[in-house]
Fold:
Amino acid sequence: MDDGRDVEPDRGRGHGRIVRRTGFRAIVGSYPARVPCRRLAVLVVSALAIAAGAVLLPHTPAGVRELLVSAGPAAPVIALTAWIVLTPALFPGTVLAAAGGLAFGAAGGAALAFAGALAGGVAAFTVARTAACGRTGRLLGRSPRLARIDALLETRGFAAVLAARLMPGVPATGLHYVAGASRVRLGSFVAAMAVAAPLRTIPYAVLGTGVASGSILTLVIAGGSIVLGTVASAVLVRHLVRATPAAG
Structure:
């Protein structure tokens, strides 16, 4: 039965193109074709940011502080923008936090570190979710273990992300990318980052201030916060291991 369409073979094997007999120009999957272009644009922008962060910027708190101070009144805005752009580029957040403490003092540096950690984390999360959209499911289908981890991240995303963020030695941006590529909800991710920031990011801003002022008390407070975060991470990991059913 003729349904008003002809299937015209395309050059690609196994594909066809539907041409409507209406006199209008044929629509050949315009929307899906845009998706890879957006992913490519995200990857290109991220690669350029990585190159800029690795080559052009100083990698010491003192060096970044000099750049911020030279910016004048716009320094806080520039610093926050740097967090958003450089976090997906794998630039060390500890350097940015310590530089903020050196440039703006303990209170200003702590506020900037908190806002920057959240905004930069969401930026990296969004990059990963955009780039990995549609591909994660195929990977999980091949690995039951990864599928169980992904299910854990979906159901207990807040606790899992918080434990990983508080754990020493876990790269923050790497965690952001893993969370973005998984089924962790954005709200759970942001909440975990907000809770973790006072124990893992803000202490480095306070540490930068303490180094500049020579205050032993400030250094002790910053170091104690990092140790407290490590203990909290161990407790959360133990809870998650107990709550996760063993593979059958």
Notes: Strands lie at 5-9, 16-20. Residues 122 and 204 are 20 Å apart (CA to CA). Residues 1-35 have pLDDT under 50 and may be disordered.
